[in-house]
Each structure stands twice: as structure tokens, then as C-alpha cells.
Amino acid sequence: MMILQNIHNTTNERVDESITVGNYCMKAREMFDKVREQYAKLAQVVPHNQYYRYNDQWRFVTQRLCFLIALVIYLEVKVLVTKETVASLLGVKNNREEGFHLDLEDFLLGLLQLSAELSRYAVNSVTNGFYDRPIEIARFVNELNAGFRLLNLKNDMLRKRFDALKYDVKKIEEVVYDLCIRGLKPSPRPIEETLAE
What we know:
mainly alpha; 197 residues; single chain
């Protein structure tokens, strides 16, 4: 978490900001090697059919790690991470039947934490002079929101966190709106084409 917090401090003075963010992602990926080792040890200790008896002991950490993996994947390739990819990076099984696994609810809660971080990233990007990034983030978070709307969520922690996603969407849309009214939104077409018209 401490490594990835540095993405909020990159400034437009750098020649290639993507290199800096890429370096933070590489350092974070190195940390996941240690995480895999710890999950492997945990999987050996937890009895095969008693995962849910003890999973409250590591549930919060797993959710946080799902969020961090989702953030790294977004920063690297601008796509939503799959549950299979997260399970692989954590070194756990994807399916419940296979033993020590990544619980679907923990994965979804990790994705919902991603929206809050990206709304913060959108604001800080504008502050740092990257005016195109909030538009990318808005598109991504709107797609995430649309996906969660397809789910039939019960009135539990997942539902409450999904309700917070709506506020994250609103916050990012306000950033994009401010960019538009101030004339800072990048043109979707090259300037030469715009001037020719």
C-alpha cells in the first residue's frame, strides 16, 4: 500500500510519467511474491473443510490485497482484473471445491475499494497536470458500476460498499465536468484537425 500511494505524487514535470507508475507497479509485484509464500503456509495450516471457520482471521487482508492487485493491473493495462488472475497472484485456488481459495465476496469487496482509490487518483491527477486521466478513470469506474448493478446484492457489507461506489462515480464525474467547463478536457481529435475546421 505504501509503495502504490506514490502514484498520487507524480507530477507533470517528468518526461514519461508512465515509467514512474510502472516502477511502483513492479515494486508492488515483488511484494506479492512474499504474499504467495504466506498464503501457502496458511493453506497448509487450515484444515481442508474448515476454510470458513477461520477465514475471518485473514478476510480483511485478502480484500485489501485484491484491491492492490486490481489497482496494479489497472495502472499497467487499464483493464479490470479477473478473479482468476487475483487468485493466481495470491497463490490460492480460484474455486471453493479445490481447497484454500479466494472467496468471491472478498474479491468483490476488493474491487469496490478500487473505485474509492481511483476517485482519489482522478482528483490528484488533475492537481498534478494530467487532464486526460480522469476521463479514462470515469469510463472505467462507470463500467465497474454497471457490472455491479447486474448483481442481486443482499443487504450486507457488499451492498453497503456498493452504495459507496455511487458516490465515487459522482465524485469522478464532477472532476470531469470541472475539466470540461474550464476548457481543460483534452480534445478527442488532434489539434490540427480541430483548427482546420
